[in-house]
Q: What sequence folds into this?
């Protein structure tokens, strides 16, 4: 049985031999000694293996290339050289899988753009090792946060017949013949499709999540979501993961409170439980990251009305690329200006104009805004989008009618307002945006293993 390098390093030196396996990061041979740094992904640091010429296969070992898979055994000893605390005095070195000089990760530094083209190999680099360890731990922390708080985990469907956000960004799911679909009234006849109706990949689990909140009180979803949105930015992916809590008997203020508690918890978790990888990001990706995240973990998040945000942007004296006017949506440049320059920390923007938000948001008494909230954070802009939901059947139906959204396909959603409806609220946190925020990585393509973006779906 192999022992993971992380565990070996935690235990430290001992007289009992240990055995571990991993991939070669570097090989250096000199005067009858060969130094091999081996990494197994369990931790940022590899172990330096010291092989001496008494080993039977010593000559072969000296010639192995970067990327080779090895199993070594020996005794961990204090390293006399600087650069590492421990090293392994090898008793055996077994070559498991060779890698020759065509292995692309020979150089120490590659650009992230290049590494994206070899997304199947980039997890073997320090940066992507750290990113994907952080991502994995955060996913587990998210489940822990909600489990500790008594939230029910719901698996909402991935194939759906409803476009929750109403933005028409659904990827179609169909088994109809693409070249010659059956036609009805000059349109493909989705009545003959696999599900007997038009279906797509979900853009959000919210609508189904609401139904469960109205039975279990507090629920969350955590799953993949898909958007056929043609935006080629560093913050948008066509497939991304979203965490969506939903609380019954809760209003917009409760929603913001939960979001603030959640983000702070995740900041503290990253600092405490992923310290080694966070130190790496602080040193190599974003100087000052740890200080930034530590401050957020302690800060009170600002709360600002949308109307005030517009005024403050207008009075800023800054010329933005996109217009700033009551009724228009905030663009990333505006969001970042608010959170980075006006506030200098995480900021909730509350109560947006109803015309730029989805149909399900609760209408405020002013007749022109809805109980929406976005959480903006420095560097990323919008990280969370949420709202209190319209729980009044008549108001919901009239808003849907105004927007031309047919009630019939959403009969089950309307039913939830018919029997035992209650105020409820929730939000969606984009998981990749969270990983970007906590690691300092600037492109969403570099925090998801195999990114899907317009015109790109390799692997
Ligand atoms: O603001 P959005 O569209 O809200 C919803 O989907 C609601 N149904 C959530 C809810 O209330 N339950 O998306 C929520 C978050 C955004 O704030 C952003 O972090 C992320 O999801 N997001 C994306 N992340 C990556 N790529 C994209 N194309 C994204 N679109 C949204
Ligand atoms: Mg949004």
A:
């Amino acid at each position: 049985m192999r022992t993971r390098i992380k565990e070996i390093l935690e235990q430290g030196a001992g007289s009992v031999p240990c055995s571990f396996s991993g991939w070669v990061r570097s090989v250096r041979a000199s005067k009858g000694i060969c130094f091999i740094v081996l990494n197994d992904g369990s931790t940022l640091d590899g172990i330096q293996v010291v092989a001496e010429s008494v080993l039977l296969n010593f000559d072969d070992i000296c010639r192995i290339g970067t990327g080779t898979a090895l199993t070594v055994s020996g005794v961990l000893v204090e390293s006399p050289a600087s650069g590492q605390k421990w090293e392994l005095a090898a008793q055996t070195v077994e070559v498991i899988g060779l890698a020759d000089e065509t292995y692309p990760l020979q150089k120490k530094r590659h650009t992230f753009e290049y590494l994206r083209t070899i997304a199947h190999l980039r997890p073997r680099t320090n940066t992507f090792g750290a990113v994907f360890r952080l991502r994995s731990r955060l996913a587990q922390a998210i489940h822990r946060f909600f489990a500790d708080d008594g939230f029910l985990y719901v698996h909402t469907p991935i194939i759906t017949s409803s476009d929750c956000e109403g933005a028409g960004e659904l990827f179609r799911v169909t088994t109809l013949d693409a070249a010659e679909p059956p036609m009805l009234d000059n349109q493909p006849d989705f009545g003959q499709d696999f599900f007997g109706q038009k279906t797509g990949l979900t853009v959000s689990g919210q609508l189904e999540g609401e139904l469960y909140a109205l039975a279990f009180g507090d629920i969350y979803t955590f799953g993949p979501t898909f958007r056929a949105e043609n935006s080629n930015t560093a913050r948008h992916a066509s497939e991304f993961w979203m965490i969506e809590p939903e609380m019954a008997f809760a209003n917009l203020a409760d929603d913001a409170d939960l979001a603030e508690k959640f983000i702070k918890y995740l900041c503290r978790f990253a600092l405490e439980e992923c310290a080694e990888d966070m130190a790496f990001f602080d040193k190599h990706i974003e100087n000052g990251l740890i200080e930034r995240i530590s401050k957020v973990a302690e800060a009170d998040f600002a709360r600002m009305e949308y109307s005030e945000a517009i005024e403050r942007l207008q009075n800023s004296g800054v010329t933005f690329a996109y217009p700033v006017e009551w009724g228009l949506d905030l663009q990333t440049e505006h969001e970042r200006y608010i959170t980075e320059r006006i506030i200098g920390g995480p900021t909730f923007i509350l109560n947006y104009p109803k015309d730029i938000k989805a149909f399900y948001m609760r209408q405020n008494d002013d007749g022109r805004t809805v109980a929406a909230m976005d959480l903006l954070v420095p560097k990323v802009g919008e990280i969370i989008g949420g709202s209190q939901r319209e729980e009044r059947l008549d108001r919901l139906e009239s808003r849907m009618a105004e927007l031309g959204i047919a009630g019939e396909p959403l009969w089950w959603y309307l039913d939830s307002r018919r029997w035992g409806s209650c105020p409820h609220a929730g939000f969606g946190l984009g998981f990749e945006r969270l990983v970007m925020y906590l690691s300092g990585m600037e492109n969403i393509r570099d925090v998801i293993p195999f990114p899907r973006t317009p015109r790109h779906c390799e692997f």
In short: The chain has two domains: 5-97, 123-167+203-446.
